[in-house]
Design brief:
Elements: E1 2-5, E2 24-29, H1 31-34, E3 38-42, E4 50-52, E5 73-80, E6 87-88, H2 90-94, E7 102-106, H3 108-112, E8 123-124, H4 126-134, E9 139-142, H5 156-162, E10 166-169, E11 179-187, E12 195-204
Parallel strand pairs: 5-7, 6-8, 7-9, 9-10
Antiparallel strand pairs: 1-12, 2-3, 4-10, 4-12, 5-11, 11-12
């Protein structure tokens, strides 16, 4: 068994989607002064590797704490689209044999890295989103900080979330090859939250 940690490390210099709160951590207590180290963490709900709940785009949608824990684990496929130019389309997806309810889309975003925000990140097209929904997929993960094109009208978020499809954004697939894995991605159980940071791992069965 091999485990891949596809979670970006939270730190004060990490890229943030424009307009979102930045990440910060500061000590509020030290061992020297008070006998223990305690920190205050400030961040947005969509910082780093995170999972979107339906409430992100739907006022009557479920919040992150209202989603069943079973939604965050199961068999998944990593699909390699690193040769796609600027987006993943239905044509790209039709070239793959898809047979799981959890899909992770590996693109050039993972190869470029997570050192700064890239406005030209690879995104999922509207026809690609429709194709994924028609397959019965329940969870989609992307290696950019959004599933939709930067500065364009949002369709994919609302389309997925209103269809009961959860979204993970900001995953790191640089070291992960196309194939089948077991997905575990647990968000924090935050009451009323539209999203939450998550620690996401993939487990590969080496005996297969």
């Amino acid at each position: 068994m091999k485990i891949y940690d596809i979670t970006h490390t939270l730190n004060s210099s990490m890229p943030i989607y424009p307009g979102n709160p930045t990440f910060s951590i500061k000590k509020t207590s030290t061992i020297e002064d008070n006998g223990s180290n305690v920190s205050e963490i400030t961040m947005g709900s969509h910082t780093g590797t995170h999972i979107d709940a339906p409430f992100h785009f739907l006022n009557d949608g479920k919040t992150i704490d209202e989603l069943g824990i079973e939604r965050f684990l199961g068999k998944c496929q990593v699909l390699d689209f690193t040769k796609s130019s600027d987006c993943v389309t239905d044509k790209d997806l039709k070239e793959k044999e898809i047979n799981t309810e959890i899909l992770l889309l590996k693109t050039k975003n993972s190869l470029v890295g997570f050192d700064k925000f890239h406005e030209d990140f690879i995104y999922l097209s509207e026809d690609g989103a429709r194709y994924i929904k028609n397959l019965g997929v329940k969870f989609v993960g992307v290696d950019g900080l959004s599933v939709k094109k930067f500065h364009e009208k949002d369709f994919v978020h609302k389309f997925f979330l209103s269809s009961g499809i959860l979204i993970a954004e900001g995953i790191d697939l640089e070291e992960v090859s196309e194939g089948e894995y077991f997905f575990v991605g647990l968000p924090l159980k935050i009451a009323g939250a539209d999203a939450s940071p998550a620690r996401i791992i993939l487990v590969e069965d080496k005996e297969k």
